[in-house]
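Take a careful look at the sequence and tokenised backbone pasted below. I need to know what the token row says about the fold.
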Amino acid sequence: MKKYLAFDVGGTSVKYAVVNEEGEVSSSNKFKTPDTLEKMYQEIENVAHEYQDIEGIALSMPGAVDSDGGIIYGSSAIDYIHGPNIKEDLKQRLNKDVEFENDANCAALAEVWKGVACHENDCCFIVSGTGIGGAVIKDRHVHHGNALHGGEFGYMIMRYDQDEKKYYTWSDDGSTVAVTKRVAKELDVDYHTLDGKEVFDQADNNEVYKKYVDEYYRTLAMGIYNLQYAYDPSMIIIGGAISSRSDLLDKVNEQLDIIFSQLTHAHVRPNIKVCQFGNDANLIGATYHYIQRH
């Protein structure tokens, strides 16, 4: 059975594992994200030398990843990855085929390959955490878009404040951090003193918490509704930190019920699922991306 070495490059650590052609993960480990590109290459090289029987290297990376050209555009927490041709550099250093893809796209591909969307062709994947990210899947492949911004749902405008004369994006209004900041502002406390998970957990027992948690779910439902009518996917998958909440789908569907009760001309109800894969999603998706390209 063919095996691949997958890396999930994050702002604080780089996870890696062997993933076989059935999507099974083994030999997982991690190292601290290096502070220079050369050190990153060296760490990856050191790991690769331990696994000689692999077909190739698959990477999940932050930023606007040009999978064909090998360059990462945009910005991320790791500034040195933007600009160099990482794909070509690693191919030469490792003498192996190398493929890489954006991290949110990898998470979506994991679901398409072996997760909740394994029977779907067209779907959207929403990553809800400190911001909003996502991916658009068309015919089981990532749709990157003209400027490599396909799936950047966080930029969508969700609200205009007439008093402030200001636009608010989905990331502004619909991230878990936004909830905590608004609660802190109303309670007149430093938002760093609040635990976002506790705000969600205690929402039914605290009026201020509930006000902004409800707003979070309303914004999420609005985004999902808009994506359904913009792209008409057969499934919309929710990932990110919020996906671990057992009441997530109930809360979103409550808000969708309100939307559909008011917009009676709309009859296409989104098919919403919670992602199946957690920490291994990016490793599995990066591997599937490699397999698709070979």
